[in-house]
Amino acid sequence: MSHKGKRNALGRGLGALLEDSANAQNDIGEMAAVGGISEVSLDNIEVNPFQPRTDFDKDALNELAESIKTQGIIQPITLRRIEANRYQIISGERRVQASRLAGLTSIPAFLRKANDQEMLELALIENIQREDLNSIEIALTYQRLISECGLKQEELGERVGKNRSTVNNYMRLLKLPPEIQAALRDKKISMGHARAIINIDNVDLQLTIFKKILSEDLSVRKVEKLVRELVSGGTARPAQKLDPEKQYHIQRLQQKLTSHFGTKVTVKTNSENKGDIRIPFLSAEDFNRILELLNINS
């Protein structure tokens, strides 16, 4: 299959890829027709070493096992043959585990050929189609597809059926401080909250806004408004009014003050050396923090 053909198949989703790529492979007692399904012994199946998902909910597995006892396997798994009577899971590890819990000895499967690179790519794409993934898990999966599979963002979008801007929005989340990423992973804040916070460049200010979201239960709209106010507050007077050297020194000073106070400090001045310094605060606690930095008692 040509590279272009492979890309088109992946762009239609994992199901189309597996349907198009299912390949006949013969084995003693196990024979698959093109696009067909074979019963494979569970003893002959091993896990995919590239599987990105390592944690499976035990209660959910037990529920699936009970369903399999009653209904059987509704959706066949997909395997690659690595040697005679030995197979590796491409997709469906959860169904394999549940089938073993249910006491099954074999499982219906599509058989196909895939090299290690394809195994990693297929495992990541299959994983990302789960409905229970949080935003950070999706972002990390996108990052792996780019770094480990050598895909560009546009190619990645084709593989997972998303546009480039959506992929980029997820990957930007990985630039947030670990504390905020963990809160997003644990659903303490939403994707909307995180996307608003990331528009602030200063890490300390990001964390201040994050804590304000938690303490005041701010909506996404309120956070977006807060961020707009902070960002717009940094708008300086037209640069052409200042001498280039003076403008450079003002910008350096503004950066130092912002770093010192942990909030976006703005310095406005004009050619007559008049202006003001603005130090925004987000709460009474934040205000007191700034006063302490100024060594002023409230």
From TrEMBL:
Annotated InterPro entries: Chromosome_partition/occlusion, HTH_ParB/Spo0J, ParB/RepB/Spo0J, ParB/Sulfiredoxin_sf, ParB_dimer_C, ParB_N
Domain ParB-like N-terminal intervals: 38-128
Gene3D superfamilies cross-referenced by the UniProt entry: 1.10.10.2830, 3.90.1530.30
Any GO CC annotation of this UniProt entry: chromosome
Keyword Phosphoprotein set for record: no
GO biological process: chromosome segregation
GO MF: DNA binding
Pfam families (alphabetical): HTH_ParB, ParB_C, ParB_N
Keyword terms of this UniProt record: Chromosome partition, DNA-binding
Family: Belongs to the ParB family.
Protein name: Chromosome partitioning protein ParB
